[in-house]
Amino acid sequence: MSSEVSERVAEPMLVEDWERLTFRVNREAYRSPEIFARERVDVWLRTWLYLGHETEIPDVNDFKVRTIAGRPLIFCRDTEGQVRAWLNSCPHRGTVLCRENEGSQRRFQCFYHAWTFNNDGTVAAIPDDGAYEDIESLQKNMMLRAVPRLEIHEGYVFISFNPDVPPLLEHLGDAADYMTMIEQQHPSGVTTLPGVQLYSVRGNWKLAVENAMDGYHFSPTHNTFVGYLRESGFAVTDDNQYAYNLGNGHSLLVLTGHGGRISMIWEPRFGEAEKVRTEEHRAEMVERLGEERAHYIADESHILFVFPNLLLFDIEGLSIRQLEPVAPGHTDVRAWQLVPREEDPESRALRMKTVVSFVGPGGLATPDDIEAYEAVQRGIEATRGAGELDYSDMSRGMRDEVKGEQGRSIDEGAMRGFWRYWEEAVGGGLEVTGDRPASFLEGRDVR
Amino acid sequence: MTQADVRGSVEVAGRTITRGEIEDFLYEEADILDAWNYDAWLALFEEGARYEIPTTDYRGWSLHAGGSFVDDDYDLIQARVKRLKSRKAHAENPHSRTQRMVSNVRLFPGEEEGTLRIRASFVVHRARDGQFDQYVGWYEHVVVPTQEGLKYRLRRTILGHEALPVGARLSFIL
Ligand code: FES
Ligand SMILES: [Fe+2]
Question: Are A162 and A148 in contact (CB under 8 A)?
């Protein structure tokens, strides 16, 4: 990052005013190539990134190819069972090493000059290596290039391109337990399934983050989906639902009025047989986890954002969403269903149908979210370069924040927390007017 | 007789269904969808029918052994139609302009009694928001001849893409 670059973007990025109770975000953050380049370095190459779930590569030698932070990677389980993340690039002259999207192999062979690598990264063969002076050091120097850091929490595999990043659990902080709560829903734990929704949106990645933390849009944007829920006998309410900043850029929406939860909160559209299974499962949870823990795991829907690229939807069913910024106005999205490893086939069918009916580009709700990111990305062209006008407003809930009241899911407090953390990383300026109220917890709420 | 001749017609429940009839059925549906006539589209389904679009990484797993883009039972098909007819289906308001091409139509006896299987290729061109997107793939439908003409038991769209390309969400019927 050079100071020349930052000077070209209008400042400040964020304007926080405790006299007028306003919080505004500079729209250049969504569209500037300079900011996008800075984000790459100051966020994507610096912090922990979600790579994938261990259950995507359940067996030794399984691999997936995946691009994270613009870098093509091989995500694999080596012959010893260890999870690895290699740069998908031949150490010889840089050719893409593995050109399959997924599979199972002990070795990766580069087609160009046939250098071959074991899936633990060691060199298996360099043809005609007698031409080199020191074969032993050549083999050592030409090992596959590993992503510097890899750690796993509850099956979620995170990587960092920054060798000096603090330990994963330190980064996850309060977000970690919400991941554990998902794992604890069922005695068998959860697993991803094949059938990944891969799609792209014409919008900045941060619009997707805001949207997930924005309960305010639910009723108007998802009008038709809310209507469908109502007709199926389920009332949707926004009352008594809250949004939390968990620190380190992570945030959480706790929803209790947005529809049933397969095997945890029954609703009429799930059918009578599922009602019985739900009651049995609850009894099992209480026995295994105790009344209180079972209550928090079962009776609340959670939408968890783990900065910067992971969204966990623990709602009607479970899904993982990964964001991969491609350009300021272009984001690749990948979404996996998470299911209990052991599940009644009827519940499974119900779960999958229900999740897909809501989330994903073919569902009854997500297309309207995508419409929103795309319409924002197009709409903000109208204020490009227009100074004061080129800011988006995220002030909802500041009035309550001053009083020390917890922000609601239909406020914008979780977004403000995200943006403050983002600005600390990427820069661009945070202008604060007036005194932050005593109740202001540095953007972090304690649940 | 060539293979093509063999598949030019299929016997179903004592009736001969020709490729011409199937082509007309698919062309008619394409017109209905391009004209945004969703009531007429719903009428092409028998009660209890399904509409499915597997994800682009689909490798033949059975339903619910993997995720999907669309996994609609008859209730959800109805809900989808109701939604698309609403002015509040924002992703399709204003509607996408679509132009559908259907070709390579083949028919096979169905696995279930009284059904036949259709395989056909499609290209759907979609214009919206100053963008032009293309969807390519094939159909693997199961249809039932009834007194009121052919009806879908299963309408299944398989995408030929490696991923849904940018802008190409499935907010309309593919
Ligand atoms: S570039 Fe891979 S072997 Fe030469
Ligand atoms: Fe939404």
Answer: yes
ipTM of this complex prediction, to 2 decimal places: 0.94
- CA-closest residue to ligand 1 atom 4: A113
Looking up residue B56, the CATH number of its domain turns out to be: 3.10.450.50
Name all domains of chain A by residue range, CATH numbers in brackets.
1-47+174-447 (3.90.380.10), 49-155 (2.102.10.10)
Q: pLDDT tens for residues A116-150?
A: 999 999 999 999 999 999 999 999 999 999 999 99
A90 Cβ below 6 A of ligand 1: yes
Task: Look at residue B170 and tell me if it is in a domain.
Answer: no
| End-to-end Cα, chain B, rounded Å | 35
Whole-number Å distance, alpha carbon A62 to ligand 1 midpoint, is 23
How buried is A290 (Cβ within 10 angstroms: 0-12 exposed, 13-18 middle, 19+ buried)? exposed
pLDDT digits (tens, 9 = 90+) for A156-199: 999 999 999 999 999 999 999 999 999 999 999 999 999 999 99
Q: Is residue B2 part of a domain?
A: no
Alpha-carbon gap, residue B55 to A293, rounded angstroms: 35
Mutate to test the interface with A, among B129, B166, B172 (most CBs of A within 10 A): B166
CA distance A433 to A7: 22
Q: How far is B42 from chain A (nearest CA, A)?
A: 16
A291 CA from centroid of ligand 1 (Å): 58
A256 Cβ closer than 6 Å to some ligand 1 atom: no
Q: Does A195 touch chain B (CB under 8 A)?
A: yes
**Residue B31: count of CB within 10 angstroms of its CB:** 12
A360 touching chain B per CB within 8 A: yes
The CA-based dihedral angle spanning residues A128, A134, A140, A142, taken in that order and rounded to the nearest 10 degrees:
-50
Q: Note whether A159 and A49 are within 8 A (CB).
A: yes
Sequence-distant (≥ 6) Cβ neighbours of residue A34 within 8 angstroms: A5, A6, A8, A9
Give the ligand whose atoms come closest to the C-alpha of residue A113: 1
Query: Is the backbone peptide bond immediately before A325 cis, with ω within 30 degrees of 0?
Result: no
Q: Are strands B116-128 and B131-146 parallel, antiparallel or unpaired?
A: antiparallel
Q: How far is the CA of A323 from the centre of ligand 1 (A)?
A: 31
B171, part of any domain: no
Q: Compute the distance between CA of residue A174 and CA of residue A194 in angstroms, rounded to an integer.
A: 29
Q: Which residues contact A280 (CB under 8 A, 6 or more apart)?
A: none
Report pTM: 0.95
**Nearest CA-CA distance, residue A134 and chain B, Å:** 43
Its domain, for residue B89, covers 9-159
